[in-house]
Each structure stands twice: as C-alpha cells, then as structure tokens.
Design goal:
Order of helices and strands: EHHEHEEH
CATH architecture: 3-Layer(aba) Sandwich
Number of strands: 4
Strand content: 25-35%
Number of helices: 4
Radius of gyration: 13 Å
Shape: globular
CATH class: Alpha Beta
Mean pLDDT: 94
Structural class: alpha+beta
Number of domains: 1
Largest sheet: 4 strands, mixed
CATH topology: Glutaredoxin
Strand order of the largest sheet: 2-1-3-4
C-alpha cells in the first residue's frame, strides 16, 4: 500500500510557504509520496479536488495548509488521516507518523 500526502495550499499563504521548507522531505523520509496542490494550479487542483471534497464538501473547517494522507488519490482513493494548519517540523513529523499504519 502506497501512501500519498496531498498538501492543499495557496500561493498567498505564508504558513503554507514556511512549511514547504520541510513538509515534502519529512513525508518522503516517512515513506510517503508527496503532492503539492496549490489552489492556483488549476490542472493539479482539478485532479485532486474530489479527494478534498470528500473530506470537506463545502470547505468548512479546512486549515491552511491541509494535508490529507491517502491511498490511490487518482483512483478509488481512501483517506487515512489529515493534518491542518501550521506547525514546527518536529510536530509535523510526529503527527504525520501517528497517521501512518504500521506497514
């Protein structure tokens, strides 16, 4: 089972930008693929929008950024967990690791 971390963010979000210095690296160190989905990147956003809408049908309660841990994001996806908002690198690693099944 291959896990993918989808990061939903915006170009004008300062917190999203700060976390981009380590979120992809930490995700990959923990064995996940990583996809950055900027709301301004229409093509990528369209590709993963249905995953986001499954978790947030009207976008209420989303954080900036929002990370969804999923399998098969381009097919019959399943959402295994989420992280919302900004946090230091160590907290991000700990909280992401807690969402990952023991494979």
């Amino acid at each position: 089972m291959s896990l993918v971390v989808l990061k939903f963010s915006s170009e004008d979000c300062g917190t999203c930008h700060r976390m981009s210095h380590y979120d992809e690296k930490v995700s990959e160190e923990l064995g996940c693929s990583f996809v950055s989905v900027m709301l301004q990147d229409t093509e990528t956003y369209r590709r993963y929008r249905r995953v986001l809408m499954a978790q947030y049908p009207n976008k209420d309660g989303m954080g900036w950024p929002t990370y969804l841990v999923v399998t098969d994001p381009e097919g019959e996806f399943a959402i295994h967990g989420e992280l919302k908002g900004g946090m230091p690198k160590g907290d991000f690693r700990t909280r992401l690791q807690a969402l990952l099944p023991d494979l």
